[in-house]
From TrEMBL:
GO terms for cellular component: mediator complex. Component of the Mediator complex. This is Mediator of RNA polymerase II transcription subunit 31. It comes from Dichotomopilus funicola. Transmembrane segments: none annotated. It holds the Pfam family Med31.
């Protein structure tokens, strides 16, 4: 099986160092672990990417599921402030903790529905603002 953004088999137990404090941290392709995990957790807000992960069997892999659980540190300060789209990112991270959602997102129809709901929410938010 392909590995995720970092090897899920060796996912560290502690969250990465914050950007201010990671000068000595090893890099992965020129990026710190913080940067890699931030980019990955934010990509989970994309329903089409979730559908891709499901279709490639990532969402049934116990090691990958454990990695998704590990990423829960993004729901708490100080990491939370680094998310560009915290609402959709955190909601998706919450949904990915549920086995039923991990099974259901393989459906392109569910991914499309999530995209449409996200657009509807954005339009309503702008109308209220």
């Amino acid at each position: 099986m392909e590995s995720g953004p970092m090897s899920v088999d060796s996912a560290p137990l502690e969250p990465p160092a914050l950007p201010e404090g990671n000068a000595n941290e090893p890099t992965h392709g020129g990026h710190s672990r913080f940067e890699v995990e931030l980019e990955f957790v934010q990509s989970l807000a994309n329903p089409e990417y979730l559908n891709y992960l499901a279709s490639r069997k990532f969402l049934t892999n116990p090691a990958f599921i454990a990695y998704l659980d590990y990423l829960q540190y993004w729901t708490r300060p100080p990491y939370l402030k680094y998310l560009t789209y915290p609402t959709s990112t955190l909601k998706t991270l919450e949904l990915l903790q549920q086995e039923k959602f991990r099974q259901d997102i393989i459906s392109p129809d569910l991914a499309h529905m999530m995209i449409m709901e996200g657009m509807k929410t954005a339009v309503e938010w702008h109308r209220e603002g």
